[in-house]
Structure formats: C-alpha cells, structure tokens
Amino acid sequence: AELCGLQVATSPLSHLSFPCLVLFPWLWLTLFSKALLPKQAGVRVLQLIGEGSFGKCVKVVNKRNCQSWNVTEKRRHLFSFPQEGEQLAIKCVYRDPGTASGSDSIDREIRVHGKCDHPNIVKLYGYYELGATVALILGFVEGSELHDVLQISRRLEEEVCASIFLQILRAVDHMHSMSIIHRDIKPRNVLLATSGRAYVIDLGLAVDLSDQSDTAVAHEQTAAGTIGYLPPEVLQEEEEAINFAMDIWALGITLYEMMFGFSPFLPHEVALPAAVEFPDPSWGMVASSDMRELIMQLLEKNPRKRIRSADALLHRWFTAERVTAVDKLVGPAQSQGAAAEGVGREDAMSQLDEEMQFDLELNEDLSMELDMRNREDLELGNQYFYQYYLATVVEGGRQDYFE
C-alpha cells in the first residue's frame, strides 16, 4: 500500500529494539500526526518496528547505490556500505536541545556501538543528523526478542539455552575485550533470529571504560540498567561497582530465567542475595551439574570472585559439540570496515563513496502506529517461531512452521 508517499509493506515476524515490538503481516499500519519517519527517497520504508519516548525505529530497504547527493545541512557518518536491496532498520532519536546529558548519551551510544564488530551484535552501518534528530542505520534482524519467546514457552530446554547463551556470552566477551560494559543485559535486549542466531542489541547504556568521560558518566549513573538484573554491589552503591562484573551478573540472571522460567531472586533479595537455589527435580526442570555450576559462578556475590567472560567461555558446560554447532550457525564475523577503528573518521567516507544514497528527509507530519487488536494472532505467531527455533537448533533441521 502507499500511504502519503510512503511505500509501506509487511514481512513475517520482524523485530528490533527501541523499544522492540513483534510485527506480523496481519497487523495494520496507520498514520497519525506529529511524528518522525524517513520519507521515501534513498530507502523505502517497510514498516514501523517500535517507538518510545525518545524516538522510533522503522524497517527500510536500501533502494540504490553510488548516486551523488549534495546536501550540506546533513551530517553523515558511514562505517560500512549496505548492499542494494538489503533490509535495514533506522532508529530515529530525538535530541533534546535543552538537555546536554541526553545529547551526550546518543553520541556515546553511536561511538561505543561503532567500535563493536561481532556476528552476535546487531550491526551499525552509520548515522545521519538533521536538526535535533539522529537516525542510526542498523542491520535488520528478523526474529523475536528472547523475552517474548520466554513469555510464550516459559522456559527453554538446556540444549537451546546452551546455544543461545554461548552466542550472548561471546558478544559480551567481545565488548569486554574492548573495555565496553553493556550495562543492560537482559532477555529484552537479545534478539533470536529465525536462523537461530542470537544478537545483543540496544547499547544505549553502554560505556567505554577506556574513555574518561564515559567512566565519569558511569560512576554518576551507578544505578543505570534494569532492576532485577543489577548486581548487589550496584544496589549497595559500592565504590568500585562499575566494572565488567555487572554484565556477568546480568548474564547469570538471564541464563537462570532461560532454563527455569523465573528469576533466582525476589526483588527484595537482590541487594543482599542468599545462595543461589535451584528448583526441586520434582518440578520437571532439571539442569545438569555443569550448568548449575556455571550459573553459580556467574551469580557469585563477590564481584572480585565472579567469573570473567573469557573464563566462562571455557567452562565445560560448553562442550565441543555445542561449540561446533554454534560455529556452524553463526558463521564468519561481520565486517564493519572502519567501525572497528572508532566512530567519526572522515576516511571512512572516502572508502565508501562520499555521497551515500540514504536521502533521509525527516517528515514531522507522518507516523505509524500498531493496531494491536490481533493480540491472539501475535502470541500464536510467537509459538510458531519458538517451534521453528527448536527445530533449527536442537533437531538440526528446518521445518516451515509458518505455513
């Protein structure tokens, strides 16, 4: 359909963060006023993925390559070159001119995300600026949030947990190796693609400890993150609470929830947590001794004794068979060109063709919202996705449950 000059299409089971909403072909897209979306120009808008108080995210497809475009008002920073026809997600974020911290947060997210080059971290191609708006050009992931899968299935089998968690852990270890703390690891910030690959998303709270300004911000915002995934040292406001160990704790909570379907601690217990307990085998949720050991090491109360990401990757729970299966699933690392050398480098532009074709005109009169009246259909689609994921990862075969 064509809505006010926007070519709007739909696709099955599409998802990305900020905030993430699962979309299906039968959900309607409508328009209302005073919003922000790219106009049809260098990209074709496919659908709205999600929106929040700071902006919105739309799915687009790249329409053309290598066309000259000279508009001095727009600032463009490109790290790698998307192919013609490639589906992307554009995350449009509003800058508040009166709030310096909000503007700094956007700049920090771009800079930190631009350093990450890993097959289990959603790809950042670059960004545009126009006035008070920043548009981040991200790789599009077709799948569903881990949180949504758990809402339907309640819990995952141990083999599925191992496959997903190994990928998440590799992404976090990559960030830690570059002095980056994610600070908001949780099921909502993990995407499960229909191929079986897991992606860590939303680096909005991430900080680079090698950057003094980031370190200062992290110590000012010690409680940044999501309640339920913050470690006890952060809640107790310990002086050295901001370090890689806070991501490790969040990984432990996430793995426990994946396996058992609920958090290991009640909300009032997190600040002074007791020993990690596991459900009685009579509940039908039996984890192997190796898995329980890893969870306990991830949820070690003392951050100095908590296992590191690099050591966790070598844990015996990740058997050779499981590692090989994930290696076949993930494939080679995605290259982000100049992204690995940091954000804002002018030579990145010269490598790509300085006049990139993403002609992002920002239209403040158009928007789209989701018609959520088909909530039952959405939940049914999630069930089909989970069955598809089990067939791909556990059984090693691909069955088309979407039929």
The largest sheet has its strands arranged as 5-6-8-10-9-7
Percent helix, as a range, is 25-40%
Number of strands: 17
- Uncertain spans, ≥5 residues at pLDDT below 50? 1-41, 64-74, 332-378, 392-403
If you compute it from the alpha carbons, what radius of gyration comes out, rounded to the nearest whole angstrom? 21 Å
Structural class: alpha+beta
Number of domains: 2
CATH architecture of the largest domain: Orthogonal Bundle
Quote the average pLDDT.
71
Task: Classify the beta-strand content into a percent band.
Answer: 15-25%
What profile does the largest beta sheet have? 6 strands, antiparallel
How many individual helices? 11
| Principal-axes shape call | globular
CATH superfamily of the largest domain: Transferase(Phosphotransferase) domain 1
What's the helix-strand series? EEEEEEEEHEEEHHEEEEHHHHHHHEEH
Task: Tell me the span between the first and last alpha carbons.
Answer: 24 Å
CATH fold-level name of the largest domain: Transferase(Phosphotransferase), domain 1
CATH class of the largest domain: Mainly Alpha
Protein name: Protein kinase domain-containing protein
Keywords: ATP-binding, Kinase, Membrane, Nucleotide-binding, Serine/threonine-protein kinase, Transferase, Transmembrane, Transmembrane helix
Pfam families: Pkinase (PF00069)
InterPro entries: Aur-like, Kinase-like_dom_sf, Prot_kinase_dom, Ser/Thr_kinase_AS
